[in-house]
Amino acid sequence: MMNYAYLVGALDTNLVIAIDAAWDAKKIISEAEKNGKKITAVLLTHTHFDHCNAVDELSKAMKVPVYVHEKEVKNVSNTLNIKTTKDGMTIAEAGLKVLCIHTPGHTPGSQCFLINDAIFTGDTLFVDSCGRVDLPGSNPQDMKSSLLKIASLPENIIVFPGHNYGLVPYSTIGQQKKSNPYLSGDLY
Q1: For the whole model, what pTM was predicted?
Q2: Domain boundaries in the chain?
Q3: Three-state secondary-structure class, residue 149
Q4: Mind listing the pLDDT tens digit of every residue in the chain (188 residues)?
Q5: What CATH architecture does domain 6-184 belong to?
């Protein structure tokens, strides 16, 4: 499914967060350790299986909290150390300040994580596309509002999507406003 799982941390620390820990917990842990990093938390952009199917194993192995939007808490195991998020909340982990931006549309609790000049968009925004809105819980009008919210961010922000569906693995808000019909408003 060409998913991305991200390890993100401040340069002056050996701590990282894992965003959308899916498919292979051992590899995610191994990548962190190989680079001298320790995972302190898992953040989920949403709870579709292809973004969180390694969360149980990773969270239990590393004994870290899992941050999930309050509208999707029911979709994750209640045996985990769950921390609920909501729009506008800031998470302080791994030397970072992570702004949670609620972006429903793909799922009711979809969210993006803004860290400095980078945004991790899960299945809300892809390079030159956006997430599906034909699944249970999806809502095209909510997606439109969410994409307009993202389009209002500074153009220099780098977009790191949840899947590698574009010609390049990442882009910027400015470039997406030019090339992505869902973000440019060409389809509205």
Answers
A1: 0.96
A2: 6-184
A3: helix
A4: 689 999 999 989 999 999 999 889 999 999 999 999 999 999 999 999 999 999 999 999 999 999 999 999 999 988 889 999 999 999 999 999 999 999 999 999 999 999 999 999 999 999 999 999 999 999 999 999 999 999 999 999 999 999 999 899 999 999 999 999 998 765 55
A5: 4-Layer Sandwich (3.60)
